[in-house]
Amino acid sequence: MPYILDEGPPLFAGLNVLPKKSTFTEYSARVATGQLDDLMDLWHTQAAKKLPVSSGSLDLDFHTIPHHGTTMEKHFVSSRRQRGVLALVARDASQRALIYASAKASQNNAVITFVDIWKERTGKLPDELVFDRRFTTYPFMEQLNERGILLLTLHKRFARLLEEISQQPPEAWKKVYLSNIGCQYRTPNVLEARIRIKAYEGELRQLAVRGLGHIKPTILLTNNTQTGSAALIDRYARRMLVENAIEESINFFHMDALSAAVPLNIDVDLQLTLIGSALYRMLANRLPPPFAKNKARTLFRNFVDVPARIKITPGQIIVRMKRRTHYSLLREAGYVGSQGSIP
What we know:
The chain has 343 residues and is an alpha+beta fold.
């Protein structure tokens, strides 16, 4: 309630006043699927001007938004199955914000649906998709391979597979150097092989990695035959950042605080979370490098949740902030004295 009654947050969001939770719930109940799709198409068009997406390498993941209603299906989350709404989220490897989210995802063909929507919005297919082992199945991976999309995922560590790897001679393993891993695990040993899997046409490249701090080797699968093994291991390690983005969406944007038990209504909340995350990235990108990597919570505390006097006249809105340490950064970013039109 204090944030709803404050004039600052709605001004930051371009609104007269912040809606209450009950208002959001009423809005989401009246939103049709086509309206939400139109909104997000317009949003991506405008957001791409200030938050350009490379559409090259994308991280994909599922998140189960928990709900204890008996009408909800059970989905896998962390190490257990839990009732809730399954949401698909995507993150561009070059950005720190979620760029796509959907609470209408079906785990069976979600990756194909995402690729089709992404091509419709950007005009081209993603170059590479990186995801967890449970994200999709081999037949759908085959469809992605036919479209020329590079894949990088984990392989299940079957007992027979682990036994075959353990029987390989020491000279078959090659030491590589990783750049974005802790010093203790920067020089693992890698065993490469070409394998065939049932329900997948053609060969896959398998990388078994020892020396990453796990008892059993980490096994990666990819159809990328050109990139070096060290770069592929580094790339999969960066996939964990999509989980950091999910964690931020839960803790700061309250993505798990559902306003209803209907998937369509939840999708409205999810898209608002996506927009909020991107807006904070736009703010961060205008700040000097040390602050450009700050999470939304830190940006809110240092630059948004601050005292100020707001004067609203028929022709303009004047904001006068009290002096504070971080305000020199806003001056560097060009915010001080800036003017903009309000639609």
